[in-house]
Specification:
This protein is mostly helical. Helices cover 63% and strands 0% of the residues. It has one domain (13-128): Orthogonal Bundle (Globin-like).
C-alpha cells in the first residue's frame, strides 16, 4: 500500500514507534469515548482494552501500512472477516470504530495526504467487516 511516490503509509507516519503510538491513542480513545466498542475486546483488570489486544492490532497495522510483517510472522494471515465473525459489527459499531480512529489520528497529528488516504482505507475496511445490517 503506497500513498505517494514510493512511500508507504508506514513511512509517512514515521515508522513503527509512531504507528504503535497511534494504536495506543486509538485504544485510549476507545476506552474513554466508546465503552460498548471497548467491551468487544479483551479487557485488563482496570477494564481497559488489554495489552495483548493493543499489541496484536499494532502488529497488524504496522504490516498493513507497509512496514514489517510481524502479525503474519507471529499469528498468520490476518483473515479479517474470519477473525471478526464472532463480533457483532453493525453500522453503529463500524461508525464507533471509525470515529475512534479519527480521534486517535487527531491526537497524533496525522494530517495531509496520508490522513486522507487512511480515512478512506479505514472506512472501507470497517464497512467490509460489517456482519449485521443494523
Amino acid at each position: 500500500m503506497t500513498t505517494g511516490p514510493g512511500r508507504t503509509p508506514f513511512e509517512q507516519l514515521g515508522g513503527e514507534e509512531n504507528v504503535r503510538a497511534l494504536v495506543e491513542s486509538f485504544y485510549d480513545a476507545m476506552d474513554a469515548h466508546e465503552p460498548a466498542l471497548a467491551k468487544l475486546h479483551q479487557l485488563d483488570e482496570q477494564g481497559r482494552v488489554s495489552r495483548r489486544a493493543r499489541d496484536r492490532f499494532a502488529m497488524f497495522l504496522i504490516g498493513w501500512l507497509g512496514g514489517p510483517q510481524y502479525f503474519i510472522e507471529q499469528v498468520g494471515h490476518p483473515r479479517l472477516r474470519m477473525r471478526h465473525a464472532k463480533v457483532p459489527v453493525d453500522v453503529a459499531m463500524r461508525d464507533a470504530w471509525v470515529r475512534t480512529m479519527r480521534r486517535a489520528m487527531d491526537q497524533r497529528g496525522v494530517n495531509g495526504e496520508v490522513r486522507g488516504f487512511l480515512e478512506t482505507k479505514f472506512a472501507e475496511v470497517a464497512d467490509f467487516l460489517r456482519n449485521k445490517a443494523e
